[in-house]
Amino acid sequence: MTTMANDLLRQFQRCSTAEEYFSLLDVPYDPRVVNVHRLHILRYFAQQLEELHARCQATDSPEHVLGSYRDALIRSYQAFTTGTALDHRLFKVLRDHAPRAFVPTTDITIQKTARNSARKNAQDGLQRQPRP
C-alpha cells in the first residue's frame, strides 16, 4: 500500500485543477459548487495544507498524509457549501472591505436632555415675544 500511496503523493504534486484534487483524493463534489467557488476552495485548501505541513511529522506514513489531505479538501469544499466567500474572507479585497456596523433609522431614538430642553425653551421664549 505504501508504494501506491507514494505514487498518489507524486500525482498530488502534479495536480493543477480543483477537479484533479477531488478526483485523486476521491472526494465527491458538485461541479456547480466548484465552478462558482473554485478559487476560494483552492485558497482555503492551500491554507489547510500549510497548517498540515506545519504539524506534519517526517515519520507520518504516506497513507496518513493522503488521509489528511483528503480531510482538508473535504473541509475546504464544505466551507463553501455551507457558507459564502464573504463568510471566510480569504482574499485581501474581501478582508479590506469588511462590513461596517449598520444601524437602521428605525432603531434610532432621540433623547431629550436638560440642556436641549433649556435651549428649546429659550428659543420658544424669543419667538413668542411681541414685536414693537
Structure commentary:
With 132 residues, the protein is mostly helical. The protein has one domain. Helices cover 66% and strands 0% of the residues. It has 7 helices and no strands. The chain has helices at 2-14, 18-24, 31-55, 62-79, 85-88, 92-96, 114-128. The longest helix is centred in the N-terminal third of the chain and has 25 residues, at 31-55. 11% of the residues are buried.
Q: Layout of helices and strands, plus pairs?
A:
Elements: H1 2-14, H2 18-24, H3 31-55, H4 62-79, H5 85-88, H6 92-96, H7 114-128
Helix pairs in contact: 1-4, 3-4
> What is the arithmetic mean of pLDDT?
78
Give the H and E element order: HHHHHHH
Characterize the main sheet: none
Poorly predicted runs are: none
Class computed from helices, strands and strand pairing: mainly alpha
Coarse morphology: rod-shaped
How many domains make up the 3D coordinates? 1
Please compute the radius of gyration using only Cα atoms.
Answer: 30 Å
Distance between the termini: 107 Å
Individual helix count:
7
Q: What portion of residues is helical?
A: 55-70%
Q: In what range is the share of β-strand residues?
A: under 5%
What is the tally of beta strands?
Answer: 0
Question: Which features does this protein show?
Answer:
132 residues, mainly alpha, 7 helices
What's the short version?
By secondary structure, the chain is an all-alpha fold. The chain contains seven helices and no strands.
